[in-house]
């Protein structure tokens, strides 16, 4: 089901309040609403846009160069490469990524994706993560959801949440690690409800964070719509320097699926198609 079906869902959507306490223990039903299977040779621009360079550490190598994001054989490929044309761009390494910002965001729900991360690369930092569609207080106070981050050729991935304290001066990461089939395809998932966030790898729960009692909007900011990002990164303070002999490196995504959640017959997910900005 492509973005056309999503628009129909959005048009008919009703925003439900969080389920009553008596419904919290009721079984959750996940209903598939959108599948991105990367057919053809181009990105679906109704759903995705490219990530350009920026000031944060992870964005310093990002580029809109066409060969850094490719769609081929039913897969999305995001690349990290040595720059072979310094006259056009002085950066020594360039990376590619995509995001659903201003195209599609979700508040609660489930996202799954099948992905393979290449091995043997020093300085590679592929990631799939989520950021708030609307910035109110700035990072990290508005929150961040890291579904997958892998450094170099580790046989595990990091699964992390970030939040602030309202000051905007300190980041409070909460996270775990999940083992993967290294160099092979894995299915990663995030199940996000009003009460918790749960990470899975190949159908097995690997990390969860439950909403603390009495948590305010800074301690638990994951109650607004977030958009999805898929990007290859190279180098940085966390992953370290890049070994050019290991380039190019790629992350391969076979499909992405978005599900709405309901409990006790009441939907708690909200899919959002942001309004176009007036020119």
Shape: globular
Rg from Cα: 19 Å
**Parts with pLDDT < 50 across at least 5 consecutive residues:** 1-22
Order of helices and strands: HEEEEEEEEEEEEEEEEEEE
CATH arch. level architecture: Sandwich
Count of runs of 4 or more consecutive helical residues = 1
CATH class category: Mainly Beta
Q: Output the structural class.
A: mainly beta
Total number of strands: 19
Biggest pleated-sheet summary: 10 strands, antiparallel
Which whole number gives the mean pLDDT?
A: 91
Please give the alpha-carbon distance between the first and last residues: 31 Å
- Return the CATH topology: Jelly Rolls
Kindly list the characteristics that best describe this protein:
disordered N terminus; 4% helix; 10-stranded antiparallel β-sheet; single chain; mainly beta; globular; 7-stranded antiparallel β-sheet; 19 strands; 279 residues; 1 helix; Jelly Rolls
